[in-house]
Design brief:
The structure holds 2 protein chains of 2 kinds.
Chain A (H helix, E strand, L loop, with lengths): L27 H7 L24 H4 L16 E7 L5 E7 L1 H5 L3 E6 H7 L23 E2 L5 E7 L2 H10 L1 E6 L6 H4 L14 E9 L2 H7 L2 E10 L11 E7 L4 E6 L4 H11 L7 E5 L13 H14 L3 E4 L2 H7 L5 E11 L5 E11 L10 H4 L12 E9 L14 H18 L4 H8 L8 E2 L5 E2 L4 H11 L5 H10 L2 E16 L18 E7 L5 E5 L8 H13 L6 E3 L3 E2 L16 H28 L6 E4 L2 E4 L7 E3 H10 L13 E6 L16 E16 L5 E11 L6 H20 L31 E4 L20 H14 L14 H9 L1 H5 L2 E5 L1
Parallel strand pairs in A: 1-12, 10-11, 14-15, 20-21, 28-29
Antiparallel strand pairs in A: 1-5, 2-4, 2-6, 3-5, 7-15, 8-13, 8-30, 9-10, 9-12, 11-22, 13-14, 16-17, 18-27, 19-20, 19-26, 23-24, 24-25, 27-28
Chain B lengths: L6 E8 L2 E8 L4 H8 L18 E4 L2 E4 L12 E3 L12 H8 L9 H14 L5 H7 L11 H9 L3
Parallel strand pairs in B: 1-5
Antiparallel strand pairs in B: 1-2, 3-4, 3-5
Classes of the chains: A alpha+beta, B alpha+beta.
């Protein structure tokens, strides 16, 4: 046990594991115990604050209530918006009468679908036909296709008045047949989007390696008829919204908002509004969580833009919680049918074949990207070489989806982990041994997957060992017996996940070769100003990830000052922050793209500062060092040192003596662009992402035999995201992703009835974890630096849904003595577990083993 | 018969300042604090009383300010997150939140701090379970609560 560990219960680390302290925290001792690390490659940059958990720059304002969230911004004469929303899942809009609303004193105006259809064009669709033919507008036009879809908007002097007025808008509906089940929608007996002529958005077959050959070589084929990954979302605590101002003279809109990916938002919005990108200025400051759910805000924002122009006044909208749940952004629901797995008798997995049916809700919006994003992690953590996936995505009369933490990969990784545990259970194999046998090995890295992705680095087996150690796997059989004596079924579960980060947008061409997206980029600027201020702007749009802090660490280490001296401007501003086409905060990439841009700009500034100091101090550049806020001659006299203030002042305000051919600016922009190369459209292969962080989760659960209630009694998550700039922030992301996964695995479910009514539209019915629902999380980390990134880092914020896989795994393990039921759904509240206990055969009928 | 009155004049002390305002009878206390008094540190995360982002202290008790009408606060003494820091800077609870990384996006943080403040006033050395119980009515979607609980327990440990 590590010396000084105060909290034995928390301390999962055992002898033989090296400990690494986290700086900056008052509780250094405890964290030393809970965070472990293997030796890392020491790069030149790690000598400064990189790798230490300095106090976050964001915290001071946020703990004092001084953050600036969009809803905190006030403007004179604002019109507050309330949307009139469809109570039906699917209905024809016969008429809308706004006259009673307009007659109310204090109502400034309204907007209806008919006006939207006149003043805007449908949003750009990424799919090929039939999905390409879907018409998606800011408000429902002619037909409403999901409960909560906005059909009209009212702007009034106060929020309350707007809501009252919205009640007075009379909408006549003619209900239509409702599709809530993707398995029905795919039959096309009712078609939701007439102009598309089909409910299918996109379909395609991915066939890598030689599935038929693998099948012939296998000793066993394990077949599973159906698995279901349910619908949930991260439900950020701050709802969506914006304050929009329109400037008539220039035609420019300013949106003080919480859009997390303004670059893409503008690409959707500007053509729809028939304007140019430069007319849309997005400003964010603090954002109250997003998790992907604030990427598809363009329909609401276009409605606000139209109202701001129509009414000539600032327009404010703050989404209500019920509306956030009902009509903003759900995660992708996915069915897996006719799963076949080819296995050798020793447990070696040769490959699998599956039909995936994805349900994107009423409109594709960011879709059909989810039809390819999963392919970043095609084989999961495993070395199977022969994989065939027949993928179809359909629309249903439910809330449109949007990327949601773990987007599309999480669903697929859940499948791969389900496969491993079902195979292990059916063939009586040890789930730990099967994983280790089939994991991609450290010595195989960088490892090319069957579809041409490259796993950059990692040690999955070691992460698994650490996780199992943290949950006390060694004594588990005795604990099973002890639990059984109390009427509890104890089970252990494992969730092996990869968090693929830094997208290659070229994968979109695998869906639609006409799309002109590929690669990735991110921008940052770093400047040294007159009084020695180091000022950084980011293209990213942070929502709690601490970008101001980590960017300052990187800049400080490169130019030789402390992070406190570096000022990173909070938030995003299209006009004043440098940004690139893919700017935003999404898809686990800031530590690579965002900090790659920061590093690039800081390197440029550093080079120029050295050049300038060399010129001023009359010394060769090699003799200059930057340290402690000075440019000085190495081992030189004290007076041979220029404070940063001197450098900034010389260039900006006192430059007459500089030679005519030397024009330093001390103000640098850098666009970081990872290299991917082209994707092979025919074979559907290519480098789809740059980095692969690992998270291996393990847990122990106890299931009450009588009620089916699941209690998590031990939980561990082991993370490997390469070099950690700020270990405490990394651990915080692990905690958060785990909480989302635990909520999803045990409670959170967007349930619709057959009429398309959402039954879980607020935090009463949609139960997210509260403090008492969360087990104590044990964490550990190893660092396998990425060979492909500027700092050896990997994006890691999404986490791959490890907790969902691991809890499903543990429940199945626990229920083994009760007739060996198979966990077939990603959400397992007590009623479902109880049903499995009552009728294990019903789930077993879903599985067959064909042996040679 | 006269029309029923739909507004009232109230006097509320917030963070030591007295505010006298005419408010709509239906005005929620949280909207009064945010929109009328313009203390925007108190947040709104739901419309059903579940999330606790709007937690303040009313006469020393932690309450969800979205579950009261502004008129119900007439004559009361309120304390919001803006009152926690003192002349020396962050108070020990705020400091603990920062050093334990008990916040990410910071949206739930004001409510968490106010629930924790009420707890620590009543029970200066809470156990982990007591800390979890005290913030059971506050939802955080970023942290998984672990660091929040640690921060609260550490304040007077």
């Amino acid at each position: 046990m590590s010396s000084g560990a105060r909290d034995g219960a928390r301390d999962g680390a055992r002898d033989g594991v090296r400990h690494r302290a986290r700086d900056g925290a008052r509780d250094r001792v405890r964290h030393e115990a809970s965070t472990t690390a293997v030796a890392t490659e020491t790069t030149e940059l790690q000598k400064g604050s990189i790798g230490t958990s300095i106090p976050r720059k964001e915290d001071g304002r946020l703990v004092q209530g001084q953050g600036v969230f969009f809803d905190d911004i006030r403007r004179h004469g604002t019109g507050y918006v309330h949307f009139v929303r469809s109570p039906y899942g699917h209905a024809k809009i016969v008429s809308i009468d706004v006259s009673a609303a307009l007659a109310l004193e204090g109502v400034y105006g309204t907007l209806t679908g008919d006006e939207v259809a006149i003043h805007t064009d449908p949003f750009f669709e990424m799919s090929t036909p039939p999905g390409a033919n879907i018409k998606d507008y800011a408000l429902a036009v002619g037909t409403t296709r999901f409960m909560g879809e906005p059909v009209a908007a009212v702007a009034a002097a106060t929020r309350e008045l707007a809501r009252d007025a919205a009640e007075l808008v009379e909408v006549e509906y003619e209900p239509l047949d409702v599709l809530v089940d993707a398995r029905e929608a795919v039959k096309n007996e009712t078609v939701m989007h007439e102009e598309a002529g089909s409910n299918v958005v996109w379909s395609g077959v991915f066939d890598w390696g030689d599935w038929e050959g693998a099948k012939a070589e296998a000793d066993h084929i394990i077949k599973v008829d159906e698995l279901h990954f349910h619908r949930f979302s991260s439900t950020p605590l701050e709802c969506a919204g914006a304050l929009v101002e329109y400037e008539r003279g220039t035609g420019q809109w300013t949106l003080y908002c919480n859009h997390q990916m303004p670059g893409i938002g503008a690409i959707w919005m500007a053509p729809a509004l028939r304007t140019s990108l430069d007319k849309l200025r997005f400003v964010t400051h603090d954002i109250g969580g997003a998790f992907g759910n604030k990427i598809c805000l363009h329909p609401s924002y276009v409605a606000l833009c139209l109202l701001a122009r129509k009414l000539g006044r600032p327009i404010q909208w703050t989404e209500w919680r019920t509306d956030q749940h009902t009509a903003n952004a759900h995660g992708n629901e996915r069915w897996f049918h006719d799963v076949e797995v080819a296995v050798k008798s020793d447990g070696t997995m040769l490959g699998f074949n599956v039909k995936a049916l994805d349900d994107c809700g009423a409109f594709p919006r960011y879709e059909p990207l989810g039809c390819i994003i999963w392919a970043q992690v095609t084989p999961g953590c495993y070395a199977w070489r022969n994989i065939r996936v027949d993928f179809t995505q359909v629309t249903t009369n439910k809330s449109p989806v949007s990327p949601n933490r773990g987007y599309s990969r999480m669903q697929h990784l859940w499948l791969t982990e389900r496969i491993i545990d079902i195979v292990a259970s059916e063939l009586e194999l040890d789930p730990v041994a099967v994983r280790k046998l089939n994991y991609v090995k450290t010595e195989q890295m960088p490892y090319e997957t069957p579809n041409g992705c490259v796993y950059d680095s990692g040690d999955y087996a070691r992460c698994l060992d650490l996780a199992l150690e943290l949950v006390g796997y060694e004594g588990i059989e005795a604990r099973r017996e002890e639990a059984a004596a109390r009427g509890k079924l104890l089970g252990v579960g494992i969730g092996s996940t990869l968090d693929s980060g830094t997208n290659n947008f070229g994968q979109s061409q695998l869906l639609n070769p006409e799309l002109q997206f590929s690669g990735n980029n991110e921008a940052a600027t770093v400047k040294l100003d007159i009084f020695g201020e180091v000022v950084v702007t980011l293209g990213t749009v942070p929502q709690g990830q601490g970008h101001e802090t980590t960017a300052s660490q990187v800049v400080g280490d490169i130019i030789g000052c402390s992070p406190e001296q570096v000022h990173v401007r909070p938030g995003h501003d299209t006009f004043f922050n440098s940004h690139a086409g893919f700017s935003g905060t999404y898809a686990s990439q800031f530590a690579v793209t965002g900090l790659g841009a920061v590093k690039g700009a800081a390197d440029l500034l550093r080079a120029e500062m050295i050049q300038l100091a060399a010129a001023v101090l009359q010394a060769p550049e090699e003799a200059i060092e930057l340290a402690d806020g000075f440019a000085r001659i190495k081992d030189g006299p004290d007076e041979a040192a220029l404070p940063f203030m001197a450098l900034g002042a010389i260039v900006n305000a006192n430059n007459a003596f500089l030679p005519p051919d030397f024009n330093p600016t001390l103000n640098h922009r850098f666009v970081y662009r990872p290299y991917f190369g082209n994707v092979d459209l025919e074979k559907k292969m290519g480098k789809l992402t740059l980095t692969y962080a690992t998270q291996i989760h393990a847990c122990v659960v106890e299931v009450d035999e009588e009620t089916g209630v699941v209690e998590i009694v031990d939980y561990a998550a082991v993370d490997d995201c390469g070099v950690r700039i700020h270990p405490q922030i990394v651990e915080g992301q692990v905690h958060g992703a785990t909480a989302h996964a635990i909520g999803a695995a045990l409670h959170e479910d967007f349930v619709y009835d057959e009429d398309g009514q959402l039954l879980t539209s607020n935090f009463y019915d949609y139960h997210v974890p509260h403090a008492l629902d969360m087990p104590t999380l044990k964490t550990a980390a190893i660092e396998s630096p990425s060979p492909f990134t500027p700092l050896g880092t990997k994006g890691m914020g999404e986490g791959g849904g490890g907790g969902i896989h691991c809890i499903c795994s543990a429940i199945q393990d626990a229920l083994k003595p009760a007739g060996k039921p198979i966990v077939y759904d990603s959400c397992n509240p007590s009623h479902r577990v109880w049903s499995m206990l009552q009728d294990p055969e019903a789930t077993r009928a879903n599985v067959k083993v064909v042996s040679r | 018969m006269a029309e029923p009155s739909t507004s009232a004049s109230i006097s509320v002390e917030i963070n030591g300042e007295v505010y006298e305002r005419e408010v709509d009878a239906r005005r929620l206390l949280v909207h009064f604090i945010r929109d009328d008094v313009e203390l925007t540190g108190t947040h709104i995360g739901c419309d059903t009383g579940n999330c606790g982002a709007c937690t303040i202290q009313l006469d020393g008790q932690a309450v969800k300010s979205c579950m009261l009408l502004a008129v119900q606060a007439d004559g009361a003494k309120l304390r919001t997150v803006e009152d926690l820091a003192n002349d020396d800077g962050l108070n020990p609870l705020q400091q603990a939140f920062s050093s334990h990384h008990a916040l990410q996006c910071g949206y739930c943080t004001p409510g968490m701090l106010m629930s924790a403040t009420a707890l620590l006033e009543a029970n200066p050395r809470p156990s982990e379970d007591e800390a979890r119980t005290a913030i059971q009515g506050n939802i955080c979607r970023c942290t998984g609560y672990q660091n929040i609980v640690e921060a609260i327990v550490a304040v007077n440990a």
